[in-house]
Amino acid sequence: MLPEKEVKQTVPLESSQSKDKGKKPVRMFQPQKKKPKVKSDNQNFTGYMFISPFLIGLFALTLFPILYSLYLSFTDYDLMGTPNWIGMDNYVRMFTNDPTFWTSMKVTFFYAGVAVPFRLVFALLVALALNKIVEMAGLYRTLLYLPSVVGGSIAIAIMWRQLFGNEGAINSILAGLGLPTHPWLGDPDTAIWTLIILYGWQFGSSMLIFLAGLRNIPKTYYEASSVDGASPLRQFFIITLPLLTPVILFNTIMQVIQGFMAFTPSFVVTNGGPVNSTLLYVLYMYERAFEYFDMGYASAMAWVMLIIIAIFTALIFKSSEHWVHYEGDSK
Amino acid sequence: MKNKALKKTIQHVLMITFALIMIYPLVWMVSSSLKESSSVFVDAHSLIPKEFHFDNYVAGWKGFGGITFGTFFWNSTIISVLATVGSIISSTVIAYGFARIKFAGKKIWFVSMMLTMMLPFEMVMIPQYIMFNTFGWLDTYLPLILPTFFGIPFFIFLIMQFIKTIPKELDEAAKIDGCNNFQIFYRIIVPLVVPAMMTSAIFSFYWRWDDFMGPLIYLSTPEKYPVSLALKLFSDPNSVTNWGAMFAMSTLSILPIFIIFFFFQRYIVDGISSSGLKG
Questions:
Q1: Structural domain span for residue A115
Q2: Are A108 and A193 within one domain?
Q3: CA A101 to CA A63: how far, in whole Å?
Q4: What are A252-282's pLDDT values in tens digits?
Q5: Are A9 and A109 within one domain?
Q6: Are A155 and A9 part of one and the same domain?
Q7: Do A65 and B149 touch (CB under 8 A)?
Q8: Do residue A79 and residue B217 have CB atoms under 8 angstroms apart?
C-alpha cells in the first residue's frame, strides 16, 4: 500500500496534511469496499469524536472570548453594570489621551527589542561552544539549562529583586571589587536592564533547540569544506548559519511573542517602577483590567497587542523567504 | 599534542567559569536561605553562611495570617496534578485524532490549533475572566483546572509528532484483528506514546506550579492560594522583615521543580530538542 501512496504524492511537501491528502486514493486499492463513502463518513465521525475536546475548547475558550473581547473593546464595561456601546472611544483615548499607554508601549518595545535578540544570540553562542565540547557536555548543558527550568517561578523573580537590591549581592560584589555601587532597581535608567538580564539569563530552552539543530547538520558538510580549505569562520557562515535558519526562525517567533507578553518580572521585581520605567504592556493591561476594572479599555489594549503580534509574526514569516534556508529547497 | 591538551583545558576552564556565573544567583538564593536573617545583606555576595540557620525554614513555613506553607503547597499540588492529568489525557486523545484519522476539515482544525498555540493566554484573559465570573467560578480552582481538559496545543503537537514515528502497519494489523479506532488508540498508541506523554506531563506540571497570573486574577481567599501567589504576598517588600525565611520559602517553592528535573531530565531535553517546546 505504501508505495502507491508515494507515487501519488507528487508535491514534496512535508506537512502532515499533504501526506494525508496523498493517502486518500489508497482506498481505491481496497477492492472489497465498493462504497468508500460509507467508510469515510464513519471516519469523519470518529475523527471528530477524538478531536472534540479541542473543538469545544477552541470555540468556548478561544474563539468566543476573542470575539467577546473585540465587542467589549467598543464598550465601557466595568464588571458592575451592563456594557454600553461607546464606539471607538477606548481606542481614541488610548492613542490620543493616555500617556501611560505610550510609556508602556515604549517600554515593551525596548524590552522585547533588546531582550529577545540578547537571549537568542546568547543561546546560539553557548550552543556553538557546547557543540564543540565532547567531554562533560551533558553536565554543562544541565547547569546552563537550570536557570530556564526554574526561571518562570515567582521565587526567581523575588530572588532577582534582592540580587539587584541596594544591599544585594551585585552591589556587594561591586563594593568588594572597589567599584561604585548603584541603586539598580531605583534608577529608571537601569531598572529595565535588570529585567532584560533576567530574560537573557533564561536562555536554556533556546540553547537546547539550537543544540538539537546543530547536531542535525551532517558532519560530511564540514569535512568536504575542510578539504576545500574553508576556515572555521567561513564554515560557520556558509554551512552552520544557513542550515540553522529554520530553527532560528522558530525560536525568534516564539521568543518575540513571549517578550511582548512578559508580565511576572515587571510585576514582582519592579512593579512597573520607578516612574513607570518598567511598566510592561501586559502589566499596564492587568492594572487597567483588575485594579481599575476598566474591562472595555483593557480589552481594546489586548486587541492592539494582538494586532501588533500578528503583524510582527507575519513580517518575520514573510522575511523568512529571503533568509531561511530549507534543505533541498534551493538545489 | 601538548597544544591540543592545553586548548582543551582552557576550553573547560572557560566553560566551568561561565556555568558557575550562570548558576551563581541560584546558589546565592539557597545560601541566603541558610544565613541568619539579619545578616543576609551583610557581605551579601558570599555563598557560605557563617552558621547554618535551618530555623529560617521553620519560621517561613508558618506562613502568614495563620495559614502555613503546608496549605499553600497542598493547594499547588492539587491544582498542578489535576490540571496535568486533564491536559495529558485530552491532548493524547486529540493528538491521535489529528495524527491517525482521516476526516473532512482536518486541515482547517489543525491550522486553528497551530494558531491557538501562538495565541498568548493574556489575550483571552479578560473575556475568560468575565465568562468565569458569570458562571460564579471566581475564587474556585475551576478556571485554573477545567480549561486544561480541552487539550493544550503544545502537547497535542508534541504527541502528534511522536505518534507519526509509530509504524502505521501496527494500526493496520490491529484493524485486521478486528480492533476499532478506540481499541487501536488505547491498546496500541497509548502504550507507545508514554514517553511523549511524560514529557508533556513534566512541562504541564512546571507551568501549573509556576503559574502566577491565573491564581492572581481568580483567587481571593488566602486559604486557597497556591505557593506562587502566597510567596508573592509573603515577600512583599514593605512588610518583609525576616529575609532568611523569605529566601527559605523561595528555595522550597522551586524544590519540586528541581527534583523532577533531576529525575526526568532526559524527557525534558528530548522534548525540547525534538519539538521546540518552550520551557
A1: 91-323
A2: yes
A3: 26
A4: 998 999 999 999 989 999 988 888 999 999 9
A5: no
A6: no
A7: no
A8: no
B115 touches chain A (CB under 8 A): no
A174: domain CATH number is: 1.10.3720.10
Delineate the domains of chain B, giving CATH numbers in brackets: 2-59 (no CATH), 63-275 (1.10.3720.10)
Q: Which of residues 49-78 of B touch A (CB under 8 A)?
A: none
CB < 8 Å to A155, chain B? 29, 231, 249-251, 253-254
Residues A159 and A26 in one domain: no
Looking at A21-35, B156-170, B224-238, which range is the least confident one? A21-35
Q: Are residues A140 and A283 in the same domain?
A: yes
Contact of B93 with chain A, judged by CB distance below 8 Å, is answered with yes
The reply to whether the predicted model has a pTM over 0.80 is yes
* Structural domain count of chain A: 2
Task: Give the CA diameter of chain B.
Answer: 74
Residue A64 belongs to a domain: no
Give the tens place of pLDDT for each residue, B193-219.
998 999 999 999 999 999 999 999 999
The distance from CA A159 to its chain's CA centroid, rounded to whole angstroms, is 24
Together in a domain, A218 and A315: yes
Our CA-based measurement puts residue B87 at a distance from the nearest CA of chain A, in whole angstroms, of 10
Question: What is the interface size between A and B, counted as CB pairs within 8 Å?
Answer: 261
- DSSP letter assigned to residue A266: I
CB contact under 8 A, B122 and A146: no
pLDDT of residue A26 exceeding 60: no
Q: Is residue A82 part of a domain?
A: no
Closest CA to B45 of A188, A246, A165: A165
B152 touches chain A (CB under 8 A): no
**Contacts of residue A311, Cβ cutoff 8 Å, sequence gap at least 6:** none
The DSSP symbol for B220 reads -
Compare all CA atoms of chain B with the CA of A22 and give the residue at the minimum distance. Answer: B102
The answer, for B276 touching chain A at a CB cutoff of 8 Å, is yes
> What distance in Å separates the CA atoms of residue B71 and residue B86, rounded to the nearest whole number?
23
The total of other beta-carbon atoms located within 10 Å of residue B78's CB is: 15
ipTM: 0.89
The reply to whether A224 touches chain B by the CB within 8 Å rule is no
Cα–Cα distance for residue pair B62/A61, rounded to 1 Å: 38
Is A23 in CB contact (< 8 Å) with chain B?
Answer: yes
Question: Smallest Cβ distance to B130: which of A129, A295, A306?
Answer: A295
